[in-house]
Specification:
Largest sheet: none
Number of helices: 2
Distance between the termini: 48 Å
Order of helices and strands: HH
Structural class: mainly alpha
Length: 91
């Protein structure tokens, strides 16, 4: 059963942004695993000498690590003021 959101989902809601980023990351991981396992399976079954499979897995893996670092360490999920004039930063 999919999770239910108790209010209208918007990107301004920090909880929704956090959930959305994590779901997007999970989709990225699923795509990485599906594509790479398929490529490596065909490579093994066909006894193919595909040097690009190493590059595909390695580079995509680095992008995936970067995505994880952003989602779990860098992303700021604090409240954002909807009106810039209400910001607490002095002018």
């Amino acid at each position: 059963m999919p999770p239910r959101w108790s209010r209208v989902p918007t990107r301004q809601d920090p909880e929704y942004r956090k959930l959305d980023d994590r779901v997007t990351f999970a989709t990225h991981v699923a795509g990485f695993l599906a594509v790479n396992s398929g490529v490596w399976f065909v490579r093994q079954v066909q006894y193919a000498d595909w040097p690009w499979t190493l590059w595909l897995t390695g580079l995509w893996g680095l992008v995936l690590v970067g995505h994880a670092v952003y989602v779990f360490a860098i992303a700021d999920y604090s409240e954002q003021p909807s009106d810039p004039s209400k910001s607490s930063v002095p002018k």
